[in-house]
Design brief:
Layout lengths: L8 E5 L6 H10 L7 E6 L4 H12 L2 E7 L4 E6 L2
Parallel strand pairs: 1-2
Antiparallel strand pairs: 2-4, 3-4
Protein name: Sulfurtransferase TusA family protein
Family: Belongs to the sulfur carrier protein TusA family.
InterPro entries: TusA-like, TusA-like_sf
């Protein structure tokens, strides 16, 4: 990870099928304050494109996508 502070919130959506991880993220973001850093953990490859597209439309910031052997961590800052 590159210079990202520890996430304030972690959403474990591993093994959820599309669009589950995105829906989990949207539901959680609605409850969070501006500036909150969220880590979305997912095994769904489509999340690496779906989440950034939604973030752009919703006005939140994509901080980083970290690829691991069996999942991705997507870091978001709520605006």
């Amino acid at each position: 990870m590159t210079e990202i502070t520890e996430p304030d919130v972690t959403i474990d959506s591993k093994d959820a099928t599309c669009p589950g991880p995105l829906m989990d993220l949207i539901g959680k973001v609605k409850t969070l304050d501006q500036g909150t850093v969220v880590e979305l953990q997912t095994t769904e490859r489509n999340s690496t494109t779906d989440v950034p597209e939604w973030l752009e439309k919703a006005g939140h910031d994509l901080l980083e996508i970290e690829e691991h052997d069996d999942h991705w961590n997507i870091y978001i800052e709520v605006n």
